[in-house]
Amino acid sequence: MNVSVVLFTSDLRLHDHPPLRAANDAREVVPLFVRDTGVDAAGFAAPNRLAFLADCLRDLDAGLRERGGRLVLRSGDLVEEVCKVVAEADADEVHMAADVSAYAHRREQRLRRALEAEGRRLHIHDTVTTAVAPGGVTPAGSDHFAVFTPYFRQWSAQPLREAFGAPRSVRVPEGIGSEELPSRDGLSGLSEGLAEGGETVARKRVTAWLRSGVQAYEDRHDDLPGDATSRFSPHLHFGTLSPVELVHRARRAGGPGAEAFVRQLAWRDFHRQVLAARQDAATADYRTKHDRWRSERTAGEEIEAWKEGRTGYPVVDAAMRQLRHEGWMHNRGRLLTASFLTKTLYVDWRVGARYFLDLLVDGDVANNQLNWQWMAGTGTDSRPNRVLNPVTQAKRYDPDGAYVRRWIPELAAVEGPSVHEPWKLRGLDRAAVDGYPDPIVDLSEGLARFKRARGKD
Ligand SMILES: Cc1cc2nc3c(=O)[nH]c(=O)nc-3n(C[C@H](O)[C@H](O)[C@H](O)COP(=O)(O)OP(=O)(O)OC[C@H]3O[C@@H](n4cnc5c(N)ncnc54)[C@H](O)[C@@H]3O)c2cc1C
């Protein structure tokens, strides 16, 4: 009987898994995950994501065991490890999901060459980690969309493949050794409130979300204290949820909330098709504004204050403290902290993107770098010079100040929306502020510096 290897990467699930479905067709299968040391060397193995990954791998293994199989884990150079397993199992083909980063592309090409040199085949499957494949819809005369609205129009009209169930059984050949699965115990530097990973918890979240969360999504997705978004982002990043299946299920649920939610899933695909076409956008400006950014060297103290959540702007600081505590931040928080760093402080977007990637459990090259570029005005935003005022934003999206009080104990005794401008407090209210810093920058001075830098003054 022929043997296939299914190489799991950022698709750590059994439901709606095209590579597994293709390989499981009357064959023995080696479900393989390689802890790629190249990813560690690139500085991408942040503790929060390693912990979440460990949960995902354990859950995947448990799901495979329920079906008669198991997960094989190896560590090392991914290409070498896959080739070793292929030789041990005498497999004739490897199935894996398509990916978009430059690193993933280079790795895929090396793997293809190495396998073909041994007479084996590599099958790459689209629509495993996106609903619509990068390049699946394109504008006339270009390989990718640079503007979301027309992309979304075509994306929405694109017929999706059906979503597949999980396999009933998986037969793994005997004698293929595996390393011990990792666990989050013993990992240091984890965020205290880090979410749990794995397909089982992810699927429970989806059921609960479609039953009682998504309907209000359109109205409440920007409500900072309400925390009314899906929190699927780490599950989408590690692929414990399938975007295709999510779109189908949300569309079946129907209504304006589900539509708004599906639109966000399209944003995710949008950034992936930009990065697939412009892989240098992970580090270089997508549309440069010739900024001469301030850096760690020239704005070190302000950058530290931003990272530690002590800029003196409560909503910025609350969001940065949420990031540190949970390894996750609300989208509105991400927007306004990124605007504050890149525009009010005029610091290089790469400094902020790096810090987010060090902590975010959903830290994702496409979504993170391109959202940072969006906010820095070097990306796909059609209003590249917009600046979010943290006080106005706070009053709109945290009207009573509950989000700020949740994350900033120094301000817990300040009542109502006045918590957003503690520097204006007087008398007893002022006395209630317990050691919270004054603003590190005057907003109008920050704005003037940014306008000058962009030649808009
Ligand atoms: C500066 C900055 C950095 C970001 N970094 C990341 C990152 O590293 N990883 C990441 O997954 N998202 C990132 N985002 C996008 C967004 O903030 C998160 O996806 C979202 O907050 C996750 O919460 P949720 O799952 O509850 O989202 P929901 O609002 O429930 O949305 C559902 C899903 O849609 C996708 N989505 C939502 N908003 C966006 C968006 N603006 N761009 C792309 N996809 C989106 C996500 O996959 C999300 O899980 C970033 C945004 C900004 C402004």
Q: What is the distance, rounded to the nearest whole angstrom, between the alpha carbons of the first and last residues?
A: 72 Å
Helical amount among residues, as a percent range?
40-55%
Rg from Cα: 23 Å
What is the H level of CATH, i.e. the homologous superfamily of the largest domain? DNA Cyclobutane Dipyrimidine Photolyase, subunit A, domain 3
Let me know the number of strands.
5
Site (Electron transfer via tryptophanyl radical): 293, 349, 372
Cofactor: FAD
GO molecular function, one term: deoxyribodipyrimidine photo-lyase activity
GO biological process, one term: nucleobase-containing compound metabolic process
Topology:
Blueprint: E1 3-8, H1 18-23, E2 28-36, H2 37-41, H3 47-66, E3 72-76, H4 78-89, E4 93-97, H5 102-117, E5 121-125, H6 148-157, H7 199-212, H8 217-220, H9 233-238, H10 243-253, H11 256-277, H12 296-308, H13 314-326, H14 331-344, H15 349-359, H16 365-376, H17 390-397, H18 402-407, H19 427-431, H20 443-453
Parallel strand pairs: 1-2, 1-4, 2-3, 4-5
Helix pairs in contact: 4-5, 6-11, 10-11, 11-16, 13-14, 14-16, 15-16
This protein binds flavin-adenine dinucleotide (FAD).
Description:
It comes from Streptomyces doudnae. Belongs to the DNA photolyase family. FAD binds at residues 217, 229-233, 261, 362-364. The chain has 457 residues and is α/β, with parallel strands linked by helices. It folds into 3 domains: 3-128, HUPs (Rossmann fold, 3-Layer(aba) Sandwich); 130-160 and 198-277, Serine Threonine Protein Phosphatase 5, Tetratricopeptide repeat, CATH 1.25.40; 296-453, DNA Cyclobutane Dipyrimidine Photolyase, subunit A, domain 3 (Orthogonal Bundle), CATH 1.10.579.10. It contains 20 helices and 5 strands. Helix 1 links the parallel strand 1 (3-8) and strand 2 (28-36). Helix 10 runs antiparallel to helix 11 (256-277). The longest helix has 22 residues, at 256-277. The chain is globular. Residues 221, 229-233, 236-237, 261, 264-265, 267-268, 271, 331, 334-335, 338, 356, 360, 362-364, 367-368, 371-372, 375 line the site of flavin-adenine dinucleotide.
